[in-house]
């Protein structure tokens, strides 16, 4: 029997070397709450409230604030991870695909966002289509940035990335460059290839105004392209009865073209295959079939 994949991006994930994080956070939920109370009281006195620990990992802590929950309070161990998440909320503010960033503090590497209660049942194809459209809005968001936002992210433009060296973790740099060219053809040389969302069913929520949002922006990067998100969506689609990964491409191409991109089904298949070869991905989960 073939063993199940370790995750949607099995093989393409970059392993962390031992000791990569010099000051890891506690993994004891009680200790995490005690430390979070101190940070919340000191840095966000206007938002102080009771805390419930959702996750206590060595990289990050996540809590809800108040009962019933009103806010999510998050703490990072690594400055880069903290800055990356804050940047994600700022870059996608006008796309309204993530919760708004209520407050953040560089010294404590913490941030606050609203708690969104409305869970979504992704087992229905129409709901999954809606999620694909949200992902498409993330990937096309740079086309609608104000000049100051575009300037902040200019170092990750397609033309800049194609002129620079490929990432060190990419085993097949020629295929990586082919992927970037396909993305540039679809979005333009000024495009910033935002992607790598932490897509999970529990991270998809519906706001009170009806808009679908993704409640965790921690993993989003402005240099990995949106292709890994399509692979993850195909992996998730296995839990949706009768939903074929090909449907993801159909909805994605339609939505991105409506938002100004120039993807076709054939160019998207080529990009998916280029990503798989370039990164060592073990399976596309039917995304390119």
Can you describe what's shown?
This protein is globular. It has nine helices and eight strands. Strands 1-2-3-5-4 form a five-stranded antiparallel β-sheet. 38% of the residues lie in helices and 12% in strands. By secondary structure, it is of the alpha+beta class. α3 (125-140) crosses α8 (245-258) and α6 packs antiparallel against α9. β4 and β5 form a beta hairpin. It has helices at 29-43, 79-91, 125-140, 147-152, 158-163, 173-187, 227-236, 245-258, 265-279; strands at residues 51-56, 60-65, 71-76, 103-105, 110-114, 118-119, 204-206, 212-214. This is Aminoglycoside phosphotransferase domain-containing protein. InterPro entries: Kinase-like_dom_sf. Residues 1-20 are annotated as: Disordered.
How would the blueprint of this fold be written?
Elements: H1 29-43, E1 51-56, E2 60-65, E3 71-76, H2 79-91, E4 103-105, E5 110-114, E6 118-119, H3 125-140, H4 147-152, H5 158-163, H6 173-187, E7 204-206, E8 212-214, H7 227-236, H8 245-258, H9 265-279
Helix pairs in contact: 3-8, 6-9
Proportion in β-strands? 5-15%
Poorly predicted ranges: none
SSE sequence, one letter per element: HEEEHEEEHHHHEEHHH
Largest sheet at a glance?
A: 5 strands, antiparallel
Give the rounded overall mean pLDDT.
93
Global geometry = globular
> How many angstroms separate the termini?
22 Å
Radius of gyration: 19 Å
Q: What is the SS-derived class?
A: alpha+beta
Q: Widest sheet: strand order? A: 1-2-3-5-4
The helicity comes to 25-40%
Number of helices: 9
Please count the beta strands (DSSP E, at least 2 residues each): 8
């Amino acid at each position: 029997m073939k063993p199940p994949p370790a995750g949607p991006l099995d093989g393409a994930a970059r392993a962390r070397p031992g000791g990569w994080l010099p000051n890891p956070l506690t993994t004891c939920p009680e200790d995490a709450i005690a430390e979070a109370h101190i940070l919340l009281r000191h840095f966000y006195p206007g938002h102080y409230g009771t805390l419930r620990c959702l996750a206590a990992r060595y990289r990050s802590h996540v809590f809800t604030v108040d009962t019933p929950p009103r806010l999510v309070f998050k703490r990072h161990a690594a400055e880069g991870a903290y800055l990356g998440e804050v940047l994600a909320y700022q870059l996608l503010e006008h796309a309204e695909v993530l919760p708004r960033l209520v407050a953040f503090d560089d010294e404590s590497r913490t941030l606050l966002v609203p708690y969104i209660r409305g869970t979504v049942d992704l087992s229905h194809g129409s709901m999954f289509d809606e999620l694909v459209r949200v992902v498409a809005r993330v990937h096309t968001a740079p086309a609608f940035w104000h000049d100051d936002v575009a300037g902040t992210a200019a170092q990750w433009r397609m033309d800049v990335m194609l002129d620079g060296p490929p990432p060190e973790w990419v085993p097949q740099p020629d295929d990586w460059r082919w992927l970037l060219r396909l993305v540039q053809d679809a979005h333009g040389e000024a495009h910033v290839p935002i992607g790598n969302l932490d897509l999970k069913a529990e991270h998809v929520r519906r706001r009170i105004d009806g808009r679908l949002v993704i409640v965790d922006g921690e993993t989003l990067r402005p240099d990995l392209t949106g292709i890994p998100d399509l692979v993850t969506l195909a992996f998730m689609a296995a839990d949706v009865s009768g939903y074929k990964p090909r449907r993801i491409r159909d909805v994605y191409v339609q939505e991105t073209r409506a938002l100004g991109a120039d993807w076709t089904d054939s160019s998207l298949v080529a990009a998916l295959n280029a990503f798989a070869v370039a990164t060592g991905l073990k399976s596309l989960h039917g995304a390119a079939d």
